[in-house]
Specification:
Bound molecules: zinc ion
CATH superfamily of the largest domain: Homocysteine-binding-like domain
Distance between the termini: 54 Å
CATH class of the largest domain: Alpha Beta
Oligomer: single chain
Structural class: mainly alpha
Shape: globular
């Protein structure tokens, strides 16, 4: 049997992406925070493979190679001031167009994703225009990843879709947001949070936030739904569970977990048993658990 390619799969249904490899492996002790280079592939291939297995069990259809920041220049030790993050992430549509131009020569499907929010790219090109230019350059799939939380990302793809519709362009849409709340941040997204990168836990989205994100993205027409930094396997599983009906299957990682906390009925404590069902888990606002309010405002201009 001939296996379906990416574009056929997107045409027929939903494709679920992966989550954030470097940040997950940094927490596990295999990646150097700050440098974010992927030498764990050589030093601890079992750790990299295990994380791939977890995303696969959670429902990921696509797992990207663990090669982030593996270009020669970033593998050298960086010194402050020597290098910014421009032209590494795709923050400029101009660079993205060059990349698409090269990649289309392969004849393979082209997926183009920029890390921008509602404010557009770093040269001031609007998010809508970025989407149109990526599609016109030849991208089959157009979207956004990283820097922003799931809800802000959905807002951005909405604007992109409107611009694409207006231009009569119909690429598939992709979203791979961060698993951290980034409300109020500027173009830098989570990079401008004072907690980035080592104290982001209190900003982590819950699996139920991810259910809402997956539904909102799907309803908007996004067919490639995944995550980026901060998205752990259980977040990906929440996408797969929310879209289980559309996909006609449940992920292997759901075998031990009934959706919406239904397993809670097995708890020996009556007061915990009550925390069951979509309504309960959708309506609570998780607390940070800290007695003091946040000590830092968001700095919109990181140095
Ligand atoms: Zn990311």
């Amino acid at each position: 049997m001939v296996k379906k390619g990416l574009l056929e799969r997107l045409r027929d249904g939903v494709v679920i992406g992966d989550g954030g490899f470097v940040m997950a492996l940094e927490k596990r002790g295999y990646v150097t925070g700050g440098a974010w280079t992927p030498e764990a592939v050589i030093e601890h291939p079992d750790a990299v493979q295990q994380l791939h297995k977890e995303f696969l069990r959670a429902g990921s259809d696509v797992m990207q190679t663990f090669t982030f920041f593996s270009t020669d220049d970033t593998l050298q030790v960086k010194h402050p001031g020597e290098e910014g993050y421009s032209y590494k992430f795709f923050m400029y549509v101009e660079e993205m167009e060059w990349a698409i131009e090269e990649v289309t020569k392969s004849g393979l499907p082209v997926v183009a994703s920029m890390c921008i929010g509602l404010k557009g790219d770093y040269a001031g090109v609007s998010a809508g225009e970025c989407a149109v230019r990526m599609a016109r350059a030849g991208a089959d799939v157009v979207g956004v990843n990283c820097l922003f939380d799931p809800y802000m990302t959905v807002d951005t793809i909405k604007v992109m879709k409107s611009a694409l519709d207006e231009a009569g362009l119909k690429p598939f849409l992709l979203t791979q947001p961060n698993g951290f709340f980034t409300t109020g941040t500027g173009k830098e997204g989570y990079l401008s949070c004072p907690e980035y990168p080592f104290a982001m836990e209190a900003r982590t989205v819950s699996r139920f936030d991810v259910h809402k994100y997956a539904r909102a993205a799907y309803d908007l027409g996004v067919r490639y739904v995944g995550g980026c930094c901060g998205f752990e396997a259980y977040h990906i599983r929440a996408i797969a569970e929310e879209l289980a009906e559309e996909r006609g299957k449940w992920p292997a990682g759901s075998a031990k977990n009934k959706p919406w906390g239904q397993n809670n009925v097995l708890s020996s404590s009556p007061f915990i048993r009550k925390r069951v069902g979509r309504q309960y888990w959708e309506s609570i606002v998780p607390s940070s658990g800290r007695s003091k309010p946040p000590s830092h405002p968001i700095d919109p201009k990181p140095q």
